[in-house]
């Protein structure tokens, strides 16, 4: 089996990608500093896969340690998730975010060049589109000035990739621009583990339904949308995980030494916050306690993907419904119980 390094592999998307990689016949090798993930993820992965997953506790910025892992594990490709990702926190701690998010990417690329490993999948984000003028967004939609330091680290990350390939360095790279990953593996053995009060909508919903949070606040219902609440492209995390496998398989058959391409990975469907709440209520069979509050600074009105390119060029298409994603998220929350997932 081909060993693939997953940096940040104990995180939400990383752990689900480890499952998808194993199911596709690859050998996932996790590298994580556990600054924003829990060791319990490894037990969950072992339960799902029926065997332990190789894991190294390390900082992606530590060149020598990363080099040693590449050599010992005979790494043949990399999926790079490791990054800090709290939009609000990034505004308070810009140097920490630039150092970690860009430093780790550069270190990984340097080790790849030093060891002759060429295939790299980069975790990017639809935040690069900002508040799009036209919907759905394609990969050619204008890149807006970043609304946060976090978003800027993704934009600069893409420029680092592009410039390195333009310099004919022997790397074959695909950047995947994610939309809103939600849900959990249907086994409820792994899922989203927000530490502390969740920033994101779906974990806040499930924690409210579980009685951990008193009430969901919907941040504004006065947007220019059909029901006044924001619209997003909510994609099942297992669909997103499988898109990484499709991208890796695409790189394996590219015979040029230097390659860079970008794909939107979304369902192509926009749903509003209120639609999500209603769908969750039907899935959970219980009303959700929520109120309408003021808008949240930095939120955009609407964004969802034109997924034509990823559908046609990578042969990948989202296949799980919003209802399925919310059912899986709720099952995962019930598995966690009514205690705060921060433990
Ligand atoms: C979604 C909607 C909120 C919480 C995320 C990631 C970002 C990027 C894209 C990867 C918004 C509303 C939320 C709540 C609410 N992903 N909301 N009450 O902001 O689209 O961005 O996905 O790079 O990194 O952060 O996701 O889940 O925070 O918000 O009303 O308690 O839900 O206003 O309209 P967002 P989100």
The arrangement of helices and strands along the chain is: EHEHEHEHHEHEEHEEEHEEHEHH
- The strand count comes to 13
The CATH architecture assignment of the domain at 3-183 and 234-265 turns out to be 3-Layer(aba) Sandwich
Largest sheet: 7 strands, parallel
Q: Give the quaternary arrangement of the chains.
A: single chain
CATH superfamily assignment of the domain at 3-183 and 234-265? NAD(P)-binding Rossmann-like Domain
Task: State the CATH class of the domain at 3-183 and 234-265.
Answer: Alpha Beta
The strand order across the widest sheet is 3-2-1-4-5-6-11
> Helical amount among residues, as a percent range?
25-40%
Description:
The chain has helices at residues 12-23, 40-49, 63-73, 87-92, 94-115, 149-166, 201-209, 237-252, 273-284, 308-313, 322-336; strands at 3-7, 27-32, 54-57, 77-80, 119-125, 172-178, 180-182, 216-219, 231-232, 234-236, 259-265, 271-272, 290-293. It has a domain at 3-183 and 234-265: Rossmann fold. The radius of gyration is 19 Å and the shape is globular. The mean pLDDT is 96. Strands 3-2-1-4-5-6-11 form a 7-stranded parallel β-sheet, with helices on both faces. With 343 residues, it is an alpha/beta fold. Bound molecules: UDP-4-deoxy-4-formamido-beta-L-arabinopyranose.
